[in-house]
Amino acid sequence: MKIYSLSVMHAPPSGPSVVLASANDLSSFSFYQRGTAGEFMPFFSKTVAERTQPGQRQSVQENMYTAHVYNRGGPDELVAVILTDQEYPVRPAFSILNKVLDEFMAKVPKSMYGNPSAISFPEIATYIQKYQDPRQADTIMRVQQELDETKIILHKTIESVLQRGEKLDNLVDRSTALSAQSKMFYKTAKKQNSCCIIM
Q: Where in this chain does the entry annotate a coiled-coil region (predicted)?
């Protein structure tokens, strides 16, 4: 999974879009491909930005690239575009676009949009580096990964107990914490649900 480019543009409904801030990561391209890729990315970003309606989000694929675009609309007329490979998940991509637009609007006044060369927004390069791993951008993905890791750890713990030669049946029989009724319930349930494993 790879992020190649991230851009913030001013996209008035009438007229061409103007790049206000952008950053590229061309490290995955060979030396000879970098110039071509570096020219294509702003072109592709501007093209999809100008064809995305205010308030709309869309993902557009072209060869090995996917452009995720968010036209926030409103009085600021800002659009953010992130170019990724086709494996990069959609939800984190749009989460990044939201974050970069929020931060850009907080740090750059609209009065500067007319003079893009005077705009300083180095945070955009940080976003590309930080969010190469989509789990960093998406808290839901991060929580899911943590849950998956917990399941793996629990499974390993149960396996390690069983590998020492102890069987759950023997532990139940020897347990002083379980009443006779609980032990009987366990045995009956195990017989009736022999297809299921009780942990």
A: none
| Whole-angstrom distance, CA of residue 136 vs CA of residue 155 | 26
Q: What does the alpha-carbon distance between residue 74 and residue 141 come to, in Å, rounded to a whole number?
A: 30
Domain boundaries, the chain: 3-163
CB atoms within 10 A of CB 98: 14
**Radius of gyration over alpha carbons of the chain, in Å?**
27
Name the token pair of 92. 């984190």
Do 127 and 96 contact (CB within 8 A), yes or no?
yes
Tell me whether residue 29 is exposed, middle or buried, using C-beta atoms within 10 angstroms of its C-beta: 0 to 12, 13 to 18, 19 or more: middle
Number of C-alpha atoms within 13 angstroms, CB side, residue 85?
10
Helix (H), strand (E) at residue 64: none
Between the CA of residue 133 and those of 2, 59, 89, 119, 157, what are the distances in Å? 8, 19, 10, 27, 29
Global pTM value: 0.66
Confidence category of residue 187, pLDDT binned at 50, 70, 90: low
Please give the class, per CATH, of domain 3-163. alpha beta
